[in-house]
Specification:
- 26% of the residues lie in helices and 22% in strands.
- By secondary structure, the chain is α+β, with helices and mostly antiparallel strands.
- It has one domain: Catalase core domain (Catalase HpII,  Chain A, domain 1, Beta Barrel), CATH 2.40.180.10.
- It is globular and about 60 Å long.
Length: 353
């Protein structure tokens, strides 16, 4: 496989392109911004223009696969949250693995980021939806900065790639992206969804029985340890790798919850917390089966990260509200398109609420 990190221009183009694809997972604009400045529709239009129109597919993370299994709580988080999912119980999960970008035919090795989205169905009818990515921080702090980056990352019609000079100018004006850029320079595409760590990146609050609020971020840590680079020359290895692993047995991740200390940035996803912060392991995610995304149960799920059970609350991070608003817009577009695609059958029991 050619080294895409070689040369200054190629490096800028790769960093900008992967940052754009990644922030598309998070950097959606909520309706609370002035309509003439930014709206969910305007931003989704920009993502669609950048990634191309593929009817029936998500406008970002278009290439993916449905998975299912359960989460088994161990009781360790019950002192910090009343959410029933943290009891010593088994909670059914409908999930999705994907890579960033709006092209459902993109090579798996085109970006080094993988994503995990989950919907946990609690016994009382509540749901916990979460979308996580295999990266340590978010590139920018605000919806407006993301929109500016999306414009800077628009592919040049002549090359099909972002203009390195335009991206360089954007990053020069946004020093908060330094941590993400440093990570992106050394990141390489892995060969498996099962060996990735997936981080919430945004912060949330756990709420205990006394009403106490605890600022946290969480991550799914893989129990599989045979991480390796993706195979050269194979554009579709991730689904096949997962199928082979599941044929040998369920795949597992440990849910690790990390607590903020006084002074840590709660509402800024571009800033990491120090590595020495208190953390607990709250349970185990088990994935035991997969289905194609065009017919599997994840197809019609909107993985809005602000859909939370009692005992978990969103922080004031503006990217959370923006994700919710534009996920809804993207969902309406693709489901309307699916209804008009030949041979498409709607699965009413799995529609997102």
């Amino acid at each position: 496989m050619r080294n895409v990190f070689s040369g200054p221009a190629a490096r800028w183009a790769l960093i900008g392109g992967l940052a754009l694809a990644t922030v598309a997972a998070f950097g959606y604009v909520g309706g609370w911004l002035a309509p003439r400045r930014l709206t969910p529709q305007r931003l989704v239009d920009t993502l669609q223009n950048n990634g191309g129109l593929h009817p029936g597919y998500r406008r970002n993370h278009a290439k993916g696969v449905c998975v299912a299994g359960w989460f088994e709580g161990n009781g360790a988080a019950r002192a910090y949250s009343t959410a029933a999912v943290f009891d010593r119980v088994r909670t059914p999960v409908i999930g999705r693995f994907a890579i960033p970008g709006g092209n459902p035919y993109a090579p798996d090795g085109s970006v080094p980021i993988r994503s995990m989205a989950l919907r946990l169905n609690l016994p009382d009818g509540e749901q916990w939806r979460t979308g996580m990515n295999a990266m340590p921080v978010f590139p920018v702090s605000t919806p407006q900065a993301f929109y500016e980056q999306a414009l800077a990352g628009r592919p040049d019609p002549a090359t099909g790639k972002p203009d390195p000079a335009r991206l360089a100018a954007f990053f020069a004006a946004h020093p908060e992206a330094a941590a993400f850029r440093a990570w992106a320079k050394q990141a390489k595409p892995s060969a498996s969804y099962a060996t990735e760590r997936y981080d919430s990146i945004n912060a949330f609050y756990l709420v205990d029985a006394q009403g106490g609020r605890h600022a946290v971020r969480w991550a799914m840590l893989p129990q599989a340890s045979d991480a390796r680079p993706g195979p050269a020359g194979d554009p579709d290895y991730l689904d096949r790798d997962l199928q082979q692993r599941l044929a040998q047995g369920p795949q597992r991740w440990t849910l690790r919850i990390t607590f903020a200390a006084p002074g840590d940035p709660i509402d800024d996803a571009a800033r990491a917390w120090p590595a020495d912060r208190k953390s607990i392991d709250a349970g185990t995610l088990v994935i035991d089966r997969m289905q194609p995304q065009d017919s599997g149960p994840c197809r019609d799920v909107n993985y809005d990260p602000t859909v939370l059970p009692a005992g978990i609350e969103p922080s004031a991070d503006p990217l959370l509200a923006t994700r919710s608003a534009a996920y809804a817009d993207s969902y309406l577009r693709r489901t309307a398109e699916e209804a008009h695609l030949p041979g498409t059958a709607r699965a009413a029991t799995e529609t997102a609420r």
